[in-house]
UniProtKB/TrEMBL annotation:
<dbReference type="InterPro" id="IPR014922">
    <property type="entry name" value="YdhG-like"/>
</dbReference>
<feature type="domain" description="YdhG-like">
    <location>
        <begin position="23"/>
        <end position="115"/>
    </location>
</feature>
<protein>
    <recommendedName>
        <fullName>YdhG-like domain-containing protein</fullName>
    </recommendedName>
</protein>
<dbReference type="Pfam" id="PF08818">
    <property type="entry name" value="DUF1801"/>
</dbReference>
Amino acid sequence: MTKDDKNLQQVLDKIAGMDEPARRVMQRMHEVIVAAAPELKPRIWYGMPGYALSASSPVLVFFRHDERMSLGVSEKAAFTPAGGEDGLLMPAAWYFEELDDVTEKRVAEIVRAAIG
C-alpha cells in the first residue's frame, strides 16, 4: 500500500466516522473534489480532509465539519482578488448545509481555481 493509498484511507475513515447527515454530505464533497481535480491527493490536514498535489506538498483545499460544514482554500492555493464589490478580497471559505447541483458545480470551479 502506497502513502497515497494510506492517506486516502484515512480520509475515507474520517468521513465514515461522522454522524449523519454530515457523513453523506461530506462523502459527496470528497467525490466532487476528486472528480474536479483527480490530480489532487487526499490526506488528513488539521484533523479534517485536505487535498494537495502530492503527499508532501501543501494542502490547497479542505473541508471541515464542526458545528457547521465548510469548504476552505488554504493560503497555498492560487488566489486572485474577487473584483467587483469585493475589490481585493480573496474568497477562501464557504459554509454549506447540503450539496445540490449548483453548489457542486461551484465547488468544482473553486477546486480547479485553487490548483491554478
